[in-house]
Specification:
82% of the residues lie in helices and 0% in strands. By secondary structure, the chain is mainly alpha-helical. The chain has one domain: MFS general substrate transporter like domains (Growth Hormone, Chain: A, Up-down Bundle), CATH 1.20.1250. Helix 6 runs antiparallel to helix 15. It starts with a helix and ends with a helix.
Length: 420
């Protein structure tokens, strides 16, 4: 297969392999940590979870990224990205350990959320840095393949980490704190793996680096405005459209996430442990969709172009999401998890490729940081909409149809742009 051949060539790049190892360990730890938080907030027997409670938790954990994200981009265009990976993962290991201690202590919920927020806030620097560094370890001819393998492998690692978390929670120790400690250990491994990469390799270039922190923070607004102007220039219009399309698809994914959580908790099972196992199965099947997207997207984007592949992904989701979602049954739900994993990840690979190919290296850090901010604002906004529309058991026909309409609007808008 052409994909296997290209993959073998890509893995011959030693620096790419080392950067990929950092991604796998970091995002695997994210999967463990996030499932530990989810089970603590949603599936603890003593907690009566509601869509509003889930939306509130997402807002507390994700909305501050709107403040952290722009600073992450500006600083990533000045700091050595390899050092960000080392120190960021060490910091997350310490903060995750503190979160585990708070989970078994009798402390106010807000203190737990502050600790968890600090762990996930550092994540913005790590993920944006990984995306910005990728063009430094592969040549331009294999950038599409690298964008298929690397982020998708990271997503699969996060899914696998979630599987490890479910296994620890259900089979080893009935303790969410133990799960979070496993995540802390993986963050530490990610920091150690980062040390295998040359300090100077991942950039940014010295000519573009302004290392004075005071200068960097003072110039944040000016630099971000320059980044937006860079993105809005005619040669990069497709990148701006792709980011907008991916933001709306992320909105849909966020609303469906809350829906699936409520269905697994109340509608499809009566026991919290059974609901947790069903959620784990749905995440695993969605991970299989991510993997298939990594195999299909290089060929499809090569034939159609990345922008038209986004049209196909969003159009397929618009048709299949209501078909599979409206029965509110277990088997269609699992099939929908696969389909949405494939279409969402396929569109994300295409978007990453468009942005990386269009944006100059000196702007990549801040553009990908803004990309992350858009993702999180859309996800939290979707959770808020879901909280307003979902009944306690998660069955909402209007919400399913609204999501289908958004997917359809994305497909139509991107198709018109590509036609122009």
């Amino acid at each position: 297969m052409a994909v296997v051949r290209d993959l073998r060539v890509l893995l011959r790049f030693g620096d790419f392999r080392r950067l990929l190892a950092v991604r796998l360990l970091s995002q695997g730890a994210d999967g463990v940590f996030q499932v530990g938080l989810a089970t603590y907030v949603v599936f603890s027997p003593e907690r009566q979870t509601s869509p509003t409670a889930i939306a509130s938790a997402m807002a507390v954990l994700l909305l501050p990224y709107s403040l952290v994200g722009p600073f992450a981009g500006v600083l990533l265009d000045r700091w050595r990205r390899r050092q960000v990976f080392v120190h960021g993962n060490l910091l997350r290991a310490a903060l995750a350990t503190a979160t585990a201690v708070l989970m078994i202590s009798h402390v106010p919920d807000w203190l737990f959320y502050v600790s968890a927020l600090c762990v996930t806030a550092v994540n913005r620097f790590i993920l944006a840095g990984l995306s910005a560094a990728l063009p430094r370890v592969v040549d331009s001819e294999r950038l599409v393949m690298a964008n298929s393998l690397s982020p998708t492998a990271g997503t699969l690692a996060a899914t696998a980490g979630g599987g490890v978390a479910f296994a620890v929670r259900l089979l080893v120790a009935d303790s969410d704190a133990a799960v979070v400690l496993v995540g802390a250990a993986l963050y530490l491994c990610g920091a150690l793996a980062s040390l295998r990469i040359s300090r100077e390799l991942l950039g940014p270039d010295r000519a573009l680096v302004r290392p004075q922190l005071r200068t960097a923070l003072a110039g944040t607004t000016r630099d971000l405005a320059a980044g937006v102007r860079h993105l809005a220039a005619p040669p990069r219009r497709e990148a701006a459209w792709a980011l907008g399309a991916m933001t709306l698809m992320r909105f849909c994914y966020g609303a469906l996430t809350v829906t699936v959580l409520m269905l697994c908790r109340y509608a499809l099972t009566s026991d919290p442990d059974d609901g947790l196992a069903l959620l784990g199965l749905a995440l695993g099947i969605s991970g299989a969709g991510f993997f298939v997207a990594a195999l299909v997207t290089p060929w499809a984007a090569g034939r159609l172009g990345p922008g038209r592949w986004i049209v196909v992904c969003s159009g397929a989701a618009a048709v299949l999401e209501p078909t599979l979602g409206l029965p509110f049954a277990t088997v269609p739900l699992l099939v929908a998890a696969f389909v949405l994993g494939l279409t969402t990840q396929g569109a994300k690979i295409a978007t990453d490729t468009i942005v990386q190919s269009s944006v100059d290296d000196g702007f990549r850090g801040r553009i990908f940081a803004v990309y992350d901010v858009l993702f999180n604002v859309a996800f939290v906004g979707a959770a808020g909409v879901a909280a307003l529309m979902l009944p306690p058991d998660g069955r909402s026909v209007p919400l399913v149809l609204t999501i289908a309409a958004v997917y359809g609007a994305v497909a139509v808008a991107m198709a018109r742009f590509e036609r122009r």
